[in-house]
Design goal:
Protein name: MarR family transcriptional regulator
Shape: globular
InterPro entries: HTH_MarR-typ, MarR/SlyA-like, WH-like_DNA-bd_sf, WH_DNA-bd_sf
Organism: Actinoplanes cyaneus
Largest sheet: 3 strands, antiparallel
CATH architecture: Orthogonal Bundle
Number of domains: 1
GO molecular function: DNA-binding transcription factor activity
Distance between the termini: 45 Å
CATH superfamily: Winged helix-like DNA-binding domain superfamily/Winged helix DNA-binding domain
Length: 161
């Protein structure tokens, strides 16, 4: 058994976790100010950036940190708040879409400027453009390997299945 606590793999995973946790802590107060949880912000952003402002519930689960049942609970809560609505899939009665509403778009528009300022201050603005490009490429490589569903439903060419 390898007991090398100086193993660079431990350092790599630890730095990623520390950076993510620190960044999310910086963003948390702004989400609270707008009465959104981080996952609700993520859902609104994913829907707003998707074709037709909608995603199948299963695709939304694949793109977020939630399980399918977790997405159902979050969408239920957001639907009660008027931020999203469900839409039946016309080709598959087993599937439904989450769709961002005008209220959800408005809430996202309120949150986004401050969110982008914080992201600039505590993340992308800390790196020169070439380092940021390399980081984004690296993160996509890792994301695609560990979460191949992360982009499901995000392309116009994706058909309902």
């Amino acid at each position: 058994m390898n007991t090398d606590l100086d193993d660079p793999r431990l350092t790599a995973v630890g730095l990623l976790a520390e950076a993510y946790t620190g960044l999310m802590n910086r963003l948390a107060a702004q989400f609270e100010q707008h009465r959104l949880s981080p996952v609700e912000f993520e859902v609104l952003t994913r829907l707003a950036r998707s074709p037709g402002n909608r995603l199948r519930m299963t695709d939304l689960a694949g793109q977020t940190t939630l399980s399918t049942s977790g997405v159902t609970r979050v969408v239920d809560r957001m639907e009660r708040g008027g931020l999203v609505r469900r839409e039946a899939c016309p080709t598959d009665r087993r599937s439904s879409y989450a769709v961002i509403t005008d209220v959800g778009q408005s809430r996202l528009a309120q949150v986004l400027p401050g969110h982008l300022e914080l992201v600039q201050q505590w993340y992308v603005g800390l790196l020169p453009p070439d380092q940021l490009d390399d980081l984004l490429d690296s993160l996509r490589t890792i994301r695609d390997a560990v979460n191949p569903c992360a982009t499901a439903g995000s392309s116009e060419s994706v058909t309902s299945a």
